[in-house]
Design goal:
- The complex is a heterodimer of chains A (about 625) and B (about 475).
- By secondary structure, chain A is an all-alpha fold.
- The longest helix of chain A is centred in the C-terminal third of the chain and has 45 residues.
- Chain B is mostly helical and about 475 residues long.
- Chain B is about 75% helix and about 5% strand.
- In chain B, strands 1-2 form a two-stranded antiparallel sheet.
- In chain B, helix 13 packs antiparallel against helix 17.
- In chain B, about 65% of the residues are buried.
- The chains are: A mainly alpha (about 625), B mainly alpha (about 475).
Chain lengths: ~625, ~475
């Protein structure tokens, strides 16, 4: 222990930077190397890794500003890492989530055949994410960032090896975003004339800068799971192990994406409030939050519903940061932290229900509140947070985003508020159906067997729920870390404490009230909590739209694939045509010529003589003419 | 010059040793196999010995003067050594793999002879000091490739071998005309004397025919997918280690090191490459034959190499050279994996196989490692080469080329995932399948591992490559 504390107090913090990346990686390999039979050993190494990562992240948190650089690939691609306000904050936030979800996973995955591989990919993800957060060179960041595709693929093929469509979808969508990021980085580096991230400041968003900005933006929002790179997430909810959902789509990917988005808006590019590019970002955010939450509203499976919220919440963050206003950026970052807390908590409680009942289908389970009170409590706190009920954390960050939205344009504010209404309505439905009302269980599950999850699973949920309360009531705590990140942009403003605009708060409260009224109406109409929003789902016009959406007609992946198929088929035709030239045309031409020449060879010696003389005469003529 | 003996060893041990192999084969197949591997390894080791001097900037040169201003000579600079190391390393692994793959077929003596001769020709070409020598070794490789593609001797297979031979030799003859034109203008074939000269556009067109037909670029590519009828180690050799890399190597040798091109080629060649990358990537998505898919992928990836080399920026050129290495390792691995799959399932149609990861776990993992590298995912080597090529294109006079190639890269991800998922995941189709022999499995695992290590320890290849491009002295 002495050694560790001595290590942590090493002033430079340089060693820590290596350790943050290498330690999870090495332990990941160890996890893989330990034989399948000894789950305890694997789990031990895994827990050691997440705990050590937490300790070292704390070390980074306390370390002074530092940069380090080791030459690597040449051509300015140096392994440059940096500790400063932003990386400090994001590394510790990630480490806490990784630790909690890790603890939960050890218990959740016991007796699962794929546990060892899951731990391996989990730690690999951690190592790469730490690298991406700490990187101070664009290409090095891209290296870690894009490397996450490998662990993403690995985790998505773990459970269902017979059907890996989701994994393909995820890699194609995220891979497209990452390749756009590669292009964006190449353009940004050329625009800036350097690859060092701390040397790039306020590039102009025009000409090549505009393309670079948009490509980097695609990379950032693609990782965050925003539209149009989102559609693998709901599928993953069915196909991937639950801790994966809590770790990546709910928390870590959001952190990565929003971290980069903030860096782009705040540092790399000079994004002016009200500019076209700012509008583009805000539109992406607004579209994402609106349509994703509309889809969440009608879901009847807990994990799937939550996964749509994982998409819609990132819409709020992008909307906030896209305004390029200090209040929006602070709000977006604060929302990112809050989202990681409550979304993780929600997924983890869904996992507890899955463990107890074997399903998360709301049509098959219900009334679990009596059997799993603590899970229910955690769930309700997290749900209140995401719905934006004061004094929980989600309320405060959402108000900041609202504030920024209305300052930019009323349309965005209206969309955001409608989104908030649907968020509240869907969680009223979910909470009501799962925890209240008459007990409902799958046929093969006995009521006595349904009980609270083990402590290792409950503890992370309780901690996360508690954090939702703490970050709401004492929102100065996180905001004191977030606000300094903006530096001069902040211009002395302080957003901690109660929201500044009372009008907006009143409107938000009215919206919540409306959601409750809506729920009561829906419940009265159908008599079941799960059907409380059916009057919206099956309203004329909406019903058909929802049907199309559920049939994947709007799925960007499917649309992309249609275009790709047509394109591929065209290319194939071109290729076949070229091949025909070689295989058929050239052969025919050759045989035609040889046939024609053959016709001259009749065996008639007199004829040969005549032709020879004509040829000779021709040559002589040619010779004479040339001379 | 001192130490130049190492070059002669590097070239002539495989080149002449090849003819010993059939004799050794009559004595013992085991000795012949070992000898074949040793000859290739000798080339690798000899090239490695030439590395320190090449890096020190000393030119290793061996020359025999002939009348009429002709000469036969070999020299080693960084570029040559880099290419020789890449080729002989991958080739050695392929030869080792052949031990398991080829042991049940006829004509093994000829097989090993041709493979080793092929590699010898490559070594000779890489170190040649003059254009005629380059042409000579170029044609030796065409003959070897002709015999090897037609290895199974069936009628349609031999036809395809003929096609490959005719297309590449046709291109080479046009290139020869170009070389002769250079001789008429400059009075020499010697590369060092020609260094820094300008080149007429019509000569460039002729030479380009040779290069693009050898490096299988659309529309001169169609022999390459057809060559998939060859035994898998041979296709691997053609695609990864030797044949298609000859074209891009000669491009680098002639147009990056030696001649000065007119600026129009910095747009024209990338444009040809772009068409090639996109068309072949589309075709790869429609094909159902595993080897044809990977072959189209080669055509597409060669376009990336060509883009990097031709776009006229230092980073691009470095990326192109690194791409040669990374693609050799990964594509070699992919073909060898395809060989294991084909060997075990007796089919190449990906619609008829699924779920093979359960029976061929090592092959499945190796395939994944190599495929990720070709896709350009970190931490694999392919990431850096792809980034540098894109970066080079962005900085060049044709920045609009970069998005086109990003689209090509997205297609790469899609078609490689399609093959991988169709072959290795899903419901198992061949329950009584067995993993390939240990030589085969360890070869693919080694190539997969090398693809990974080349990414993590990128400083080693990129150090060499940055030395090479800096010594070109044209940026």
């Amino acid at each position: 222990m002495n050694g560790i504390s001595a290590f942590l107090t090493v002033g430079s913090g340089m060693n820590l930077l290596y350790v943050m990346i290498l330690l999870p990686f090495v332990l990941a390999l160890l996890c893989l190397a330990i034989p399948k039979q000894s789950y305890a050993a694997k789990a031990g190494v895994f827990v050691l890794a997440v705990v050590a990562n937490l300790i070292f992240a704390f070390g980074v948190f306390r370390a002074p500003d530092a940069t380090m650089l080791i030459p690597w690939a040449g051509f300015e691609i140096n392994l440059a890492l940096r500790i400063y306000d932003f990386s400090r904050f994001i590394v510790i936030a990630a480490a806490i989530i990784v630790f909690l979800v890790g603890l939960y996973s050890v218990s959740f995955l016991r007796r699962k055949e794929y546990a060892g591989q899951f731990f391996f990919y989990y730690l690999l993800t951690l190592a790469l994410a730490n690298g991406a957060f700490l990187a101070n060179n664009f290409v090095v960041m891209l290296f870690f960032w894009e490397g996450l595709l490998v662990s993403l693929f690995g985790m998505l093929v773990l459970v269902n090896k017979d059907n890996v469509r989701t994994a393909v979808k995820a890699i194609v969508l995220s891979g497209t975003a990452d390749l756009l990021l590669m292009l964006g980085i190449a353009m940004t580096c050329m625009h800036a004339g350097t690859m060092m991230m701390d040397a790039v400041n306020d590039l102009s968003v025009s000409g090549i800068g505009a393309v670079g900005f948009l490509c980097m933006l695609a990379g950032a929002i693609g990782k965050a799971g925003s539209m149009p790179f989102h559609s693998w997430i709901p599928d993953a909810a069915n196909d991937a192990p639950l801790p994966f959902m809590a770790l990546l789509p709910a928390a870590l990917e959001k952190m990565l994406g929003i971290y980069l988005l903030t860096r782009i808006v705040l540092d790399f590019y000079d994004l002016q409030p009200g500019s076209t590019m700012s509008l583009v970002v805000m539109i992406i955010g607004a579209v994402t939050l609106f349509f994703a939450v509309s889809m969440a509203l009608i879901q009847k499976d807990m994990k799937r519903l939550l996964s749509f919220h994982a998409i819609s919440q990132v819409g709020y963050m992008i909307l906030g940061i896209g305004t390029a206003l200090p209040v929006g950026i602070v709000g977006g970052l604060f929302h990112m932290v809050n989202n990681a807390l409550y979304k993780c908590c929600l997924f983890l409680s869904a996992g507890a229900i899955e463990r107890a009942t074997g399903t998360t289908d709301l049509k098959r389970v219900g009334g679990l509140g009596k059997m799993m009170p603590l899970t229910g409590l955690c769930f309700i706190i997290a749900a209140l947070s995401i719905a934006g009920v004061p004094p929980f954390n989600g309320f405060f960050s959402k108000e900041l985003v609202f504030d920024a939205a209305i300052e930019s344009h009323t349309v965005f504010y209206v969309i955001a508020v409608v989104g908030a209404f649907m968020t509240a309505a869907s969680f009223l439905k979910l909470g009501h159906a799962a925890f209240f009302g008459p007990t409902k269980l799958p046929d093969d599950v006995k009521k006595e067997d349904v009980r609270e999850a083990p402590a290792a699973m409950l503890l992370p949920m309780v901690v996360l729920a508690a954090a939702c309360v703490v970050f709401g009531v004492w929102n100065r705590l996180p905001l004191d870390m977030i606000q300094p990140l903006l530096g001069d942009t902040l211009a002395g403003q302080d957003f901690a404490g109660w929201p500044h605009s009372m009008t907006l708060v009143l409107i938000s409260l009215a919206v919540l009230l409306l959601a409750i009224i809506n729920h009561i109406i829906g419940y009265r109409m159908t008599g079941e909590g799960i059907k409380a929003v059916d009057h919206i789902h099956y309203a004329p016009g909406l019903r058909q739209l929802y049907h199309c959406a559920e049939q994947h007609y709007f799925d960007p992946f499917d649309i992309l694939m249609v275009f790709v198929r047509i394109y591929a088929w065209l290319c194939y035709c071109i290729d076949r045509a070229i091949n025909w030239i070689y295989d058929v045309l050239l052969v025919r031409l050759t045989s035609f010529f040889s046939q024609s020449l053959k016709n001259f060879n009749t065996g008639d010696v007199a004829g040969y003589m005549v032709r020879s003389f004509i040829g000779l005469a021709f040559l002589v003529l040619l010779f004479v003419l040339l001379i | 010059m001192e130490g130049s003996g190492v070059l002669l060893v590097c070239i002539f041990v495989p080149l002449l040793g090849a003819f010993l192999l059939p004799i050794l084969g009559r004595i013992s197949t085991g000795i012949r196999n070992i000898a074949a591997l040793l000859f290739v390894l000798t080339a690798f080791i000899a090239a490695a010995f030439a590395l320190p001097q090449a890096l020190a900037g000393e030119l290793l040169l061996w020359r025999l003067e002939l009348p009429l201003g002709m000469s036969i000579g070999f020299f080693a600079d960084g570029l040559a050594v880099f290419m020789a190391l890449t080729s002989s390393l991958v080739a050695a692994i392929i030869v080792f793999y052949s031990f398991g793959y080829i042991e049940h077929y006829d004509n093994q003596n000829e097989y090993y002879m041709m493979v080793v001769l092929f590699i010898g020709a490559m070594m000779g070409l890489v170190f040649s000091t003059n254009l005629i020598l380059i042409y000579g070794f170029w044609e030796i490789s065409a003959v070897c490739c002709w015999r090897l593609i037609g290895f199974y001797r069936k009628k349609d297979i031999v036809l395809r071998a003929d096609k490959a031979f005719l297309v590449t030799v046709g291109g080479a003859l046009l290139m020869l005309v170009g070389f002769i034109a250079i001789y008429i203008q400059a009075g020499t074939f010697d590369l060092m004397e020609l260094r820094g000269r300008g080149l007429d556009n019509w000569i460039m067109v002729l030479i380009l025919f040779g290069i693009l037909s050898k490096s299988a670029t659309v529309p001169l590519h169609s022999w390459l997918p057809d060559a998939g009828v060859a035994p898998s180690p041979v296709t691997s050799l053609l695609h990864a280690a030797v044949l298609v890399k000859i074209g891009v190597y000669v491009y680098a040798r002639l147009f990056l090191v030696n001649f000065q091109l007119e600026p129009v080629w910095e747009v024209a060649v990338p444009a040809i490459a772009a068409v090639s990358a996109l068309v072949s990537a589309g075709a790869a998505l429609v094909e159902n034959d595993i080897k044809r898919i990977i072959a189209y992928s080669t055509v597409s990836q060669l376009a990336f190499i060509l883009l990097g080399l031709s776009c006229g920026t230092m980073v691009g050129a470095a990326g192109g050279l690194l791409y040669i290495l990374m693609h050799s390792l990964a594509k070699g691995g992919l073909f060898l994996c395809a060989g294991i799959v084909e060997h075990s399932t007796h089919t190449k149609d990906i619609r008829q196989m699924a779920g093979l990861a359960r029976r061929l776990p090592v092959t499945a993992v190796s395939f994944a490692l190599c495929a990720f590298s070709v896709m350009g995912l970190p931490p694999f080597g392919g990431f850096f080469s792809k980034y540098m090529v894109i970066n080079g294109a962005v900085q060049s006079g044709v920045p609009w080329m970069a998005p086109v190639f990003i689209a090509g890269a997205v297609m790469t991800v899609i078609y490689l995932l399609r093959v991988y998922v169709k072959v290795f995941f899903g419901k198992l189709t061949h329950p009584d399948l067995k993993e390939g022999s240990w030589e085969m499995v360890s070869s693919v695992a080694l190539l997969g591992l090398l693809s990974l290590l080349a990414g993590i320890f990128i400083n080693i290849p990129s150090g060499l490559v940055s030395f090479i491009v800096e010594s070109m002295g044209r940026w």
